[in-house]
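assembly run, all chains below
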Amino acid sequence: MLLRMSSLFLRTLREDPADAEVPSHKLLVRAGYVRRAAAGIYSWLPLGKIALENVTRAVREEMDAIGAQEVLFPALLPREPYELTGRWTEYGDLLLRLKDRRGGDYLLGPTHEEMFTLMVKGEYSSYKDFPVILYQIQTKYRDEARPRSGILRGREFVMKDSYSFDLDDAGLQKSYDLHREAYIKIFDRLGFDYRIVSATSGAMGGSHSEEFLAPAPTGEDTFVSCAQCQYAANVEAVQTRLPQVEAAGEHPPVEVLDTPDTPTIEALVEFLGQPASAMLKNLLVKVTEGGVTSVVVVGVPADRDVDMDKLEAVLAPATVEIFEAEDFAARPDLVRGYVGPHALPGDVSYLADPRVAQGTAWVTGAGQVDKHARNVVAGRDFTVDRYVDVATMLPGDPCPRCGGPLSLQRGIEIGHIFQLGRKYTDAFQLDALGPDGKPGRVTMGSYGIGVSRIVAALAEQAHDDKGLIWPREVAPADVHIVATGKDNQIQVALDLAQRIEARGVRVLCDDRAGVSPGVKFTDAELIGVPTILIVGKGLAQGVVELRDRGSGQREDLPLEEAVDRVTGLVGRPS
RNA sequence: CGGGGAGUGGCGCAGCUUGGUAAGCGCGCCUGCUUUGGGAGCAGGAGGCCGCGGGUUCAAAUCCCGCCUCCCCGACCA
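ok done. output:
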């Protein structure tokens, strides 16, 4: 279908929208791909819809290629199945709940494990039926506390979710591997720069899990990668190598220092002129287990923070809360900003990062206002009740696999695959009768791709100061023909557009009359079609100009050659 | 949910402190003429319950109260 700018439903903007912060958001709005409908909710205009369809098609084709079968569930779901698996409450406020006129509870689906499991249970019951992989491409909802970054993190978004059902772990591994291969094909096709990293399975439960991350400064995930080996992991999933325990060294005795007005590490660093890495940061938390709450102090080198997710994972099923001002008020023996492990009340236990090894000496709080202590030695002056791996990562930390230095990078999560196991099949008692007539519990895998997020993630990775630069697979057209000048040039351009299109090449033609060349060039660069063909002043000599949007390379060529050249570039001969 | 900021034609903004021809600018849109390889020029136009509700006042975009919405940072989180 030939897209003509003269009638295309499109208005480009010269200025960034006031509510946009990240490049993809600014550019997708300015180039007329999307419009905001509400916070975190977007409408797709024709160009955006085409790009979204292009992503959808690539995903669908590769899913079909591994034998997955497409289904479609409602987005509006009943409460009961989610009640049964506990997610009605576990998912918390992130679950978008509604009531109908009778007061019945419903939700707008965030993911559909429950529905897929129930559907398979309803249809299949024999080992002969398995394995099976089902998927859907559908609108999902999450009641994000704070939607941000435009399309990257909305409250409504399009997602492909698929689920594999297998009789045993070997089968699950096979389904997982199939998805992994399919995802590689999909993201290669879409022209992504991406990494596959080890991940935690998050709130879903389950074991083996990997994320596909598109490196971008605006990404919300941080991952580490090792230059020496192939190790790469989300920081949440990194297992720190335990450092060698130092033999108790010859440290001077503890010395108490006057450090007026230094309740923060920053102030202390300033005051003492020593690096934060020499100091011990002690974070107070309330740990509740079995209805009993106790105070726990967690020590980490002060150039790091405590990762609360990791801490909660370590202490689970106990719940962890940060110590608030009123908690300090209730415990005058714990001095905010001046806590030290050697000066703790007896009822407080001390957890520490492995780097706080036996024999290491630290600057830390002295347990009194405006006083710190130095030469506080682990094992000599205080004991660590338990070592826990809960400190945040820093660049240069050793790779857990080979010991090489790790680097940290931000990335956008565009896909996640993991082996769910039997959490949901247990909840719904999904069994398959074996050849012996006895039931066996089915095991599941769960695999997601953020379809609408991909459009934004590509925009984050591929743009310049002029606008978008789409990979061909996603671009709303293969070639953007710009007719500058007078009406006869528009006629020539339209004629050319039709001949190119007859070769199976998708064409966007700027046939607007009375629009100056500068405006058309600017729009073409903003819209980001990978190939730009200019029918303009060279026409008098029978020449048109071919430009590559990405590299900016320009080339004049005879009008008669244009059809073949463009067709060749696109690599999609009819 | 905590902290900060903002709601004025389709978009981006000024005006508010010091109530009273301040409803104003840029982009976009419409008409005519000129222009056509880098965001055109001239002339003439259309378009705004100034977020909503209440209050103060002779008079409110402007002052006061309440509410709603949106953005940023944090918390949270596929």
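The longest strand of chain A covers residues 406-421.

The two ends of chain A are 14 Å apart (CA to CA).

not gonna interpret more than that til we talk
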